[in-house]
User: Fold allantoinase from Streptomyces cheonanensis.
Amino acid sequence: MPHPAPYDLLLTGGTVVSHDGRHRHDIAVRDGRIAAVGEGLAARAARDVRVVDAAGLLVLPGLVDVHVHFREPGMTEKEDFASGTRAAAAGGVTTVVDMPNTVPPVATAEEFRRKLNLVAPKAHVDFGLYGMLGQDNAEEMTAMAELGAMGFKLFMGQTTGDNRCPDDAAIFRGLEAAAAAGLVVGAHAENDHLLRMFIDRLRASGRTDPRAHLASRPAFVEVEAVTRIVTMATEAGTKLHIHHLSTGAGLRRVRDLRADGHRVSVEALVAHLLLDDSAYDTHGNLIKLNPPIRPAENVAELWAGIARGDVDVIATDHAPHTPAEQAEQDVWCAHGGFIGVETMLPLLLTAAAQDRLSVEDIVRLCSYTPARRWSMPGKGQLAPGFDADFVLVDPDATGTVDPATMHSRHNVTPYEGRPLTGAVVATYLRGESVYDKSGIVGAPRGRHVRPAPAGKR
Ligand SMILES: [Zn+2]
Assistant:
């Protein structure tokens, strides 16, 4: 008789959903990794193995949110790495990529090292860190790559932190540095000069209402920046990702560029998919976002892009501010962004229950593709050898978005009260529970995720 398999954990009876299908499979875990996936694993396991009964539940790979702002260092009145990663764990997100527009910005190797040491002990989920592609910091980018940077953020248009946007020559040198390191550059693609001009015009005209923000950022401001950065990245040989592409026109331009042989990945935000400009009437400046929440026709174009496969990734742009900041009445003084990492999966499951996409699509857009695009070792799939990062989902559970149960430092959300179909039951990080219905489980045990070396992808 063969010896029983020495598993640490056995997940039985669940329906395992991957990017391309679903199966009634058991999952066996050993040393934080998936040891086996298949039918009837319990019969082969040792008798004292810890068993989690997932009957009636869906088992998804933990989500990988490549766009969060957890505000450390320098803006911890808004959020910090502990509260942000607790919100992630409660939302079924097991890996986040945190943005570098903190105070100070992560634009040097010294700052990268300092931030890594600061946030690592507080992380309840695994995390990657972006460095900044700034004005003339190519050497620092190379050094940040050596320290394990997940990629580099390029702000072509201004946002929180009000960092100076690099000029085109600096952008090109940064793209070359990222290409040499084999890392992704993620662009915030809006033309800074144009949007500042429109803001000045609208201010001069006396507009201070929430919709003036939308008026200040017409679609061509995005289309121009997308065209320019894709063209430059192809020339430099850089892996380019467009964060929060927000317009149908931008998506059509990406299709044209791809038809011309350019390679680029594209992200849509949950907020751009679930909110339209009618929300300015109900939520005012709370939904101020860069790029802005746009009209319903545009939202429909983004959903069509998802259905066609033009959109590669869905992310949150989780961007917290204090309640006082979010109550600002003057649109030009209001801050951009709001929270989202904890509500992404429940809201997308609700969209799946409405047949707007499938749960397999959610896995592909929010876990499988991001893990592959950023070359995250062990992430994005429930297969032998991968990290045992998974989320148990009850697809039929109903409820509403309730800030009182949420985990960010401030839980002001435009989704408050929204009906939900589908809930996170438990989240596991490398084989250990980090969240269940009792709340956050255990001390922070998240790890820094470095991209796989260029030769091992
Ligand atoms: Zn962002």
